[in-house]
């Protein structure tokens, strides 16, 4: 991902934003944060956007806020897909809850695994991994079973369901990350919660700002997790480009699906292209190291999302005995191909040719 070139597109606007901020002298909260919250809520078709410091905090605060409203029990057991970034697991633990990991099929949470676990968990955190939205069926099943579902939308900014429902507008609440490499990325850490419930938004906002209800009154034990005003100003510049960038990502993904042909390189299912903001384009290769070295030799940089599943990390020793074959397969074989809005047609072709010639 050519991050410097991607950021360069905003250089002039960013300099202006920085100058305005220096002149205004308000570095926490203020106009740019208010504008981002209003515009991003609008963009996601929700009533509220509560900005915060990063995506991990957004998840923690979302869970804590709903627990303080009585919607999650003490020590709530949270069903979570094993195939995710470790932040999702950490957020559950940090919120004082217990992760109940389950396997995915092929990359996301599905109804059958949730159904099989009924009774062993209190709520669900779904994850739109690689930018692909979790199926509507999962939300319908949760609703039918009176289960709250929260979504880790750290990778799915701008994705839409077939009926036009936006990422961030599904379930009880969603948590976004604006880490620099995300489809909507800041120039540092930033995150946000989106939801429709007034009380949930108000409580989350309070927790993110020391638990205070007014200047000198603190009702709950909160944290300091506010989006920097400067990051909000940068995000305001970038939000305008998000849909167009996602369209370009989609075109690249479509070209990969149509033109990569190599039995050693497994593509995601065709359905992968639907309801997807294409944060990552994954392929699955048994001899990953050799493949990555081969591409690198052709000047093609790749990434990996991810190499070790959370339940296999030393940080989660208590989960190390669990086995999730599909998740483990993904973590052993996944390679993320270049997929960003500035990739040129000839570069895409070079990548495809190199992959098709791989033996
Ligand atoms: C799926 C997922 N969840 C949560 C996070 C955490 O976001 P952040 O790095 O902004 O804390 C990330 C980003 O790295 C992510 O990819």
UniProtKB/TrEMBL annotation:
> Which UniProt key words apply to this protein?
Aminotransferase, Pyridoxal phosphate, Transferase
* Name of one Pfam family that matches: DegT_DnrJ_EryC1
Q: Where is the active site?
A: 182 (proton acceptor)
Q: Which molecular function GO terms apply here?
A: pyridoxal phosphate binding; transaminase activity
Q: Which residues carry this modification: N6-(pyridoxal phosphate)lysine?
A: 182
Any one of the GO BP annotations: polysaccharide biosynthetic process
Is the Transferase keyword given for this protein? Answer: yes
Q: Which family does it belong to?
A: Belongs to the DegT/DnrJ/EryC1 family.
Protein name per its UniProtKB record: Aminotransferase
Species the sequence originates in: Nonlabens marinus S1-08
Query: What high-level taxonomic lineage is stated for the organism?
Result: Bacteria, Pseudomonadati, Bacteroidota, Flavobacteriia, Flavobacteriales
């Amino acid at each position: 991902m050519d991050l410097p070139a991607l950021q360069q597109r905003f250089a002039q606007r960013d300099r202006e934003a920085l100058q305005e901020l220096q002149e205004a002298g308000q570095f926490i909260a203020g106009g740019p944060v208010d504008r981002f919250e209003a515009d991003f809520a609008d963009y996601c078709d929700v009533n509220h956007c509560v900005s915060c410091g990063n995506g991990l905090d957004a998840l923690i605060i979302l869970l804590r806020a709903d627990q303080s409203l009585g919607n999650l029990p003490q020590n709530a057991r949270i069903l979570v897909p094993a195939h995710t970034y470790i932040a999702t697991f950490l957020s559950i633990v940090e919120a004082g809850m217990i992760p109940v990991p389950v396997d995915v099929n092929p990359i996301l949470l599905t109804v059958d695994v949730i159904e099989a676990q009924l009774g062993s968990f209190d709520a669900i955190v779904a994850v739109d991994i690689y930018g692909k939205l979790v199926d509507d069926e999962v939300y319908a099943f949760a609703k039918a079973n009176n289960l709250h579902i929260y979504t880790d939308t750290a990778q799915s900014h701008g994705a839409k369901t077939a009926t036009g429902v936006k990422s961030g507008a599904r379930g009880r609440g969603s948590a976004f990350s604006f880490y620099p490499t995300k489809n909507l990325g800041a120039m540092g850490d930033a995150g946000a919660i989106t939801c429709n419930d007034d009380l949930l938004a108000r409580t989350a906002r309070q927790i993110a700002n020391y638990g205070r209800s007014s200047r000198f009154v603190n009702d709950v034990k909160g944290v300091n997790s506010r989006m920097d005003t400067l990051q909000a100003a940068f995000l305001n510049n970038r939000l305008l480009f998000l849909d167009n960038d996602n369209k370009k990502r989609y075109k690249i993904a479509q070209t990969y699906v149509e033109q990569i042909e190599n039995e050693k390189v497994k593509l995601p299912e065709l359905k992968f292209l639907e309801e997807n903001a294409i944060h990552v384009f994954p392929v699955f290769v048994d001899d990953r190291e050799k493949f990555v070295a081969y591409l690198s030799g052709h000047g093609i940089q790749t990434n990996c999302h991810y190499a070790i599943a959370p339940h296999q990390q030393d940080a989660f020793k208590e989960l190390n005995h669990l086995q999730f074959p599909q998740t483990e397969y993904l973590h052993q074989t996944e390679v993320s191909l270049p997929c960003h809005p500035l990739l040129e047609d000839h570069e895409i072709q070079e990548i495809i040719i190199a992959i098709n010639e791989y033996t």
